[in-house]
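Researcher: Re-running this chain for the archive, since the previous output was lost when a drive failed. Same request as before.
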Amino acid sequence: MSSAARVLELLADRGETLAVAESLTGGLLAAELTSVPGASRVFRGSLTAYATALKQEVLGVDGTLLAERGPVDPGVARQMAAGVRRVLGADWGMATTGVAGPAMQDGQPVGTVYVAVSGPGGAENMASLRLNGDRAEIRRESVLGVLGLLCDELRANARTQDTEENGGN
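Model: Regenerated structure tokens:
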């Protein structure tokens, strides 16, 4: 089973929805999710905020953060995930931001990627990836990285819920 299929199955089992905000992946994450039959049960949609201004104007990323740190930053990834969740009305949001190459961006080397997830009850997680390869490989590995991050978060979130429902044992 693909990572995208696994994530969609976990969300469907929980009756929850998903939205994605993409920068360096430019729609590749949404394409991966929608390649899975039945994705529409869970997947609400995506925003490709490739331009830095859109991260602020559409997703609500803090303008001061963008001005001081640039778009390739862990805080930006977190705010993108939370923003797309809010804007598209989903239970979970995922985000990708980074440098796919061929050249450095805002002082960040090629292969610097941040992925984040945001979910119900304040659930959130972020991962810093240092990827090698050409532009296509970096974009592909970014997609796999954020899908893995959400899968891990869903599993951890389910364990927390099970513990709470069983009296903390």
